[in-house]
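It would be a great kindness if you could assist me with a short task in structural biology. The matter concerns a single protein, recorded as an amino acid sequence and a row of backbone structure tokens. Could you please explain, in whatever detail you think fit, how the structure tokens follow from the sequence? Thank you for your consideration; the sequence and its tokens are set out here:
___
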Amino acid sequence: MFIKQISVSLDNVPGALSLVSEILGSEGVNIRAISVADTADISTVRCVVDDPPKAINILTSKGYSVKETDVLAVETPDHPGGLNAVLQPLKDARINVHYLYPYLGRASDQAVVILGVDKTEEAEEVLKKNWVHTLGNELYNL
């Protein structure tokens, strides 16, 4: 099952990310996974939160432009080379991984990564067929 990721573009200035974290935290929204990629002027913040609709509403009301995207949360073996148990089946199915970032906690004894891919539904089927566990809404409650 897919999960929702929210993305926000921020001016690449000191304190911009801190303000978003402060806004979400003060409203009781927990960031479960986060990735920040920057250019000279803009940072793109991608995150998985425990209440995506609430986070979108809060950030939008504060003037931020927020994008919601379906991504996959995938358990990956936590040992050297374990990530390839996820990546190899996607490669074999010719599914492109646009980005990947870690979940900040653990859903079990496995590491969890968030995947943004070009064919989300197909990627989920490929991973399930290869015995890779994808996490859905339960990830928000962990």
Notes: DSSP finds four helices and seven strands in the chain.
